[in-house]
Amino acid sequence: MPVVAIVNQKGGVGKTTLATNLAWALAQTGSVLLFDADPQGSARDWGHFNTGGPENLSVQGAGNNPLVDQVRRLSSRYDWVILDGPPGISNVSADAVRVADAVLIPAKASAFDVWAATDIVEAVKARQTATKGTPKAAFVITMAKPRTRLGRQIDAALAELGLPVLQNRTTDRVAYTQAGNDGTSVLSGSDRTARDEITAIRHELEQLSHDHQ
Ligand SMILES: Nc1ncnc2c1ncn2[C@@H]1O[C@H](COP(=O)(O)OP(=O)(O)O)[C@@H](O)[C@H]1O
Ligand SMILES: [Mg+2]
């Protein structure tokens, strides 16, 4: 039932990669709808490729009806809805924040990417104020280069924006791009570190979402 929106107005920060892998991970134990709110349809295309994925995973693109109505109507039928957000700040990303129980904001390891997230952070905080705390929200660092000064700078920059940062992150690994191209998940690939990263993020997401209930 929880609706998880993966949003950041900046493109190329890893929204779709996180959305597809988390949807796949959650579908190991429950029914999942991966809802593609990006007009570019990357998650939907990925879904067309993927034939050997978990049975419990459905992928759907946004229709013409308002996003909030579509997602609310669908969410009762699934254990999880993962919403892959569009680039840009638009009504669609505002709606994604509005309909979500939890929001993950992927942030790539560069200060420009952190600053680019300011608008979506403001939208999330405004919504939290209006609703006394929903959605729960956190940054997820993506494509991290471990043990670099860059990494520490990003942690500091994110802390200033005033939302928590998940402890687990994805590091920069070719397995993610390969899985995206193949229409699969790193969970079915041979890169054990990537598998562990997604599994760990999945557990943190479950905690974040359940805090809310
Ligand atoms: N952890 C990672 N390591 C390496 N490449 C990644 C990782 N996460 C995403 N990518 C790659 O970065 C590019 C942008 O990712 P994508 O998920 O499409 O971002 P967005 O949906 O925010 O535009 C893609 O080529 C994807 O394969
Ligand atoms: Mg995308």
Secondary structure layout:
Elements: E1 3-6, H1 15-26, E2 32-36, H2 42-49, E3 57-61, H3 67-75, E4 80-84, H4 91-99, E5 102-108, H5 111-116, H6 118-131, E6 136-142, H7 149-160, H8 174-182, H9 192-211
Parallel strand pairs: 1-4, 1-5, 2-3, 2-4, 5-6
Bound molecules: adenosine-5'-diphosphate and magnesium ion (MG).
Concise synopsis of the structure shown:
The protein has helices at 15-26, 42-49, 67-75, 91-99, 111-116, 118-131, 149-160, 174-182, 192-211; strands at residues 3-6, 32-36, 57-61, 80-84, 102-108, 136-142. The chain is of the alpha/beta class and 213 residues long.
In whole angstroms, the N-to-C terminal distance is 11 Å
Whole-number tally of structural domains: 1
Instruction: Name the CATH superfamily assignment.
Output: P-loop containing nucleotide triphosphate hydrolases
Structural class: alpha/beta
**Any idea what the radius of gyration is?**
16 Å
DSSP strand count: 6
CATH class: Alpha Beta
Low-confidence stretches: none
Question: SSE string, helix = H, strand = E?
Answer: EHEHEHEHEHHEHHH
